[in-house]
Specification:
Layout: H1 2-27, H2 30-38, E1 63-69, E2 75-81, H3 84-89, H4 91-95, H5 109-116, E3 121-126, H6 138-146, E4 153-158, H7 172-189, E5 197-202, H8 204-217, E6 227-231, H9 237-241, E7 245-246, E8 250-251, H10 260-267, H11 276-290, E9 294-301, H12 310-323, H13 330-340, E10 342-343, E11 349-354, E12 358-365, H14 377-390
Parallel strand pairs: 3-4, 3-5, 5-6, 6-9, 9-12
Antiparallel strand pairs: 1-2, 2-4, 7-8, 10-11, 11-12
Helix pairs in contact: 6-14, 7-8, 8-11, 11-12
């Protein structure tokens, strides 16, 4: 009996090892990597029509589906979401309009409320991997983003190429081009100046956010937005895969992390690194050199089992190391944190680093998981903190 149990256990172990070896083999191919990194085929809104935002809990014509042209020729599916108090003020006019997808967004009354109101603010939302603009905790997130000033804060969210109804295949370069196209739409079509635009992002979207923010900061003349919020960011893909588990359960390369030589070998097959640590440094370096004002807020929950909160702490160090002319080691920053970090008890902790030009804020929460945090008041506060820093009268 013991021998039989041992035999079946050995067979099961061999099968698991074989399956994992097969997974490792697939991970060396760029196409499979794209599916693992972006999870773009996982829609999570199969049984709802994105062209009917009311089915996601919005009021009639509060959200307008439309599309933005990508520089590579495709169309990016997007939503324009009106803040609730602004909707209440103009409800009769909005209800008189047709609901659903707008072939010409500029003809819609909601768009005119964004374009023609000099005190309007716009949040460009860059979502994480998997799903669509209507998936999971993203809808409560949109409400939290505008809750601090529900008559003035609009949200535009979009699906990258290959996600939802946006055709194409995702790639690092492609997603960056898509996000740049959305920013161009906001500034050129909607006519919103960068000082009234905040870029919000979560998970994979934080890498897109930093890439785009750095891109515009490096332009001549530089373009700098009101600020950026990064929720659950990661250092880079090679660092992430050392601990990442698909759906919180299926490990990628974490079992190999115990074998440095083998682990480093497999890292060489990673095609797209999404190096946020380099981009956050490049963004700050450009703004410091140009004397431009910048604001970054990093938010992470300690109980995030998808992306450990240590990633935010490392990113914060890369930011501060760039802000300090002589540089600062990770250990030195930890010593400063021990003295200056504000302990908020069950709410977590926060730390800020300032220069004459900018501020980077690290907020590590005790709870919030990977997605739940997006609908929490900490997000609303972060939005208002940035907008009020730009214009103290905005309250």
């Amino acid at each position: 009996m013991v021998c039989l149990v041992f035999k079946y256990a050995s067979i099961s172990a061999a099968v698991l090892v074989g399956l994992y070896a097969g997974l490792l083999g697939l991970l060396t191919t760029s196409s499979f990597q794209a599916h693992v990194v972006y999870l773009h085929k996982i829609q999570m809104t199969w049984f709802k029509d994105l062209d009917i935002p009311e089915s996601f809990g919005f009021l009639r014509c509060q959200t307008t589906p439309f599309s933005i042209k990508s520089p590579t020729g495709g169309m990016l599916y997007a939503w324009h979401i009106l803040p609730i108090e602004l909707y209440r003020q103009h409800e009769p006019a909005l209800l008189a309009e047709p609901a659903g997808f707008a072939l010409n967004i500029t003809s819609r009354f909601g768009f005119k409320l964004l374009r023609d109101e000099p005190d309007a603010r716009l949040i460009i939302h860059m979502h994480g991997a998997a799903g669509t603009v209507g998936s999971g905790y993203r809808v409560p997130n949109y409400r939290a983003l505008s809750a601090g000033q529900p008559s003035k804060i609009h949200v535009v969210t979009f699906d990258y190429r290959g996600f939802g109804r946006s055709p194409g295949t995702p790639s690092e370069r492609g997603l960056c081009l898509d996000a740049i196209a959305v920013v161009d739409w906001a500034t050129k079509v909607a006519g919103i100046p960068p000082s009234r635009i905040l870029i919000f992002s979560q998970s994979m979207g934080t890498a897109v956010n930093l890439a785009v923010s750095e891109h515009f900061a490096l332009q001549s003349p530089p373009i700098v937005f009101a600020g950026a919020i990064l929720v659950a960011p990661f250092v880079d893909v090679p660092t992430l895969v050392a601990t990442y588990r698909i759906a919180g359960s299926i490990p990628l390369l974490s079992p190999l992390a115990r074998f440095p030589v083998l682990f480093n070998y497999f890292q060489t097959f990673i095609k797209e690194t999404w190096s946020s640590k380099d981009r956050i440094a490049g963004y700050i370096r450009a703004n410091e050199a140009n004397g431009e004002t910048y604001r970054l807020i990093l938010i992470h929950a300690e109980d995030d089992y998808d992306i450990p909160s240590h990633h935010t702490e490392v990113l914060f160090w890369h930011a501060v190391n760039t802000m300090v002319p002589r540089g600062i080691t990770y250990e030195e920053l930890e010593e400063v944190k021990d003295k200056s970090k504000r302990d908020l008890g069950a709410a977590g902790s926060l730390m800020e680093w300032r220069t004459e030009n900018g501020v980077v804020r690290e907020e590590v929460l005790k709870t919030g998981l990977h997605d739940v945090v997006m609908g929490n008041p900490v997000v609303t506060m972060a939005v208002m903190r940035i907008f009020e820093a730009v214009d103290p009268s905005f309250n």
